[in-house]
Amino acid sequence: MNTGKPTYRQPWFWVPTLYFAQGIPFVVAQSVSVIMYKRLDISNADIALYTSWLYLPWALKPLWSPFVDMYSTKRFWIVMLQFVIGICLICIAFALPLPAFFTYTIAIFWVIAFASSTHDIAADGFYMLALEQHHQAAFIGVRSTFFRLAMITGTGLLVVFAGQIETSSGGNIPLAWSVTFGVIAGMFLMFFAYHRLMLPYPQSDKPTLEKATQGVWKEFINTFVLFFKKKNIVGSILFLLFYRFAEAQLMKLVTPFLLDARENGGLGLSTSEVGIVYGTVGVIALTLGGLLGGWVVSKQGLKFWLWIMVFIIHVPDAMFVYLSQLQPTNFLLINAAVALEQFGYGFGFTAYMLYMIIIAQGEHKTAHYAICTGFMAIGMMVPGMFSGMIQEALGYKDFFIWVILATIPGFVVAALVKVDPQFGKKADQEKKG
User: What is the location of CATH 1.20.1250.20 in the chain?
Assistant: First the structure.
């Protein structure tokens, strides 16, 4: 039946904005919140504990992803959730000047996290429904590029913006972050209005509830059963949980370390400087590392590069041992050290992402990949939760030495995985295509 609504629109009109919008709430909840709370004098232990809990919605999203299919269209979920996230961002802006701001804002961040993780499900599903296969392949790089640009915008430009307002307002930090979140909210509500008009209406974008029977629930349970019956699944799950055991702890304390006063063991950078070092230079290095990692695997396969990537993701963590022990003041040197660590993380993380694809191979590929992302989120959430308490007990110098020791599980679990020598090679992919 022809409703008069466009079933197709040029992907350049909506794919970049959709994935930019997907990245903003994620980076706000996981990274910007850490910087904001540090500037508002929340302890490292509380920052690490409560912001790590915000990973939980991404860990659990495989559990409710079938309901996004069952109820309404992916397009409806996308537009509705963008509106909800925009309103939540406004609420944070108004809550920050209040005495109990930490309680209120953490609660609102929880809503944002659940809305954002559900938005991820809907957006990825919509992408597959609205585009033909050749367009899906052609725009996969566009997706990741605009998600990375959202990270640079969130942890870079917006943090620099907050720092500039801090300075111009005479150090009124709550005001600076209220204005910043007001700007983010306005930007997100513009995404809501734009996508409400510009997203196409694919004919296949329909709720599946009309087909739902008891068989749906049986299949839902069977999907999980089949995942845990996969060959070498215990080793695979341990790899997902512990490959980034050290990095999960490091990431939660990087920006507090950069911001903390030098007498407290930090580097004493301003908010704007952190936006440049970690949010801009660091993210660019992270992206370049990921691009190089993907390119080299396409040449010689994952098995050839696996152990090299294991070393390259972990060894550059020593940059923070250097920074914490010597506390250099040279801004370019600090940028170079952070860039090296982030480049190594981006390069080594390629192995993790590709191994998730290996685990998900076979029937229920989409659902099994979603389960892998759930374990990925748990692997970041749990170590991150106690990292702040460890840092406060040890101080920054000994904490970063502890991080080096915490890389050992990453090496151990890498020895448990089995990879086909041909997996990832370009020639092999072309043969399959």
Answer: 11-199, 230-426
Going by the DSSP 8-state scheme, the letter that residue 407 receives in this structure is T
With beta carbons less than 8 A apart as the criterion, state whether 189 and 86 touch: yes
**CATH code, residues 230-426:** 1.20.1250.20
Q: DSSP letter string over 186-248?
A: HHHHHHHHHHHHHS---TT---SGGG--HHHHHHHHHHHHHHHTSTTHHHHHHHHHHTTHHHH
For residue range 368-422, what is the model confidence (pLDDT) as tens digits?
Answer: 877 888 898 899 989 999 999 999 999 999 999 999 999 999 999 999 988 877 7
Q: In terms of pLDDT, which residue wins out, 312 or 72?
A: 312
Q: How far apart are CA 410 and CA 408, in angstroms?
A: 5
pLDDT one-digit tens code per residue, 7-47: 888 888 998 999 999 999 999 998 899 999 999 999 999 99
| Angle, vertex CA 63, rays to CA 62 and CA 64, nearest 5 | 95
Residue 433 has pLDDT above 70, yes or no: no
In angstroms, the CA 403 to CA 315 distance is 11
* Residue 425 reports pLDDT greater than 70: no
**CB-CB contact of 43 with 68 (8 Å):** no
In the block, tokens 């440049």 appear at 276
Q: How far apart are CA 413 and CA 291, in angstroms?
A: 24
* DSSP code of residue 29: I
Highest CATH level, class, for 11-199: mainly alpha
Average pLDDT, the chain: 87
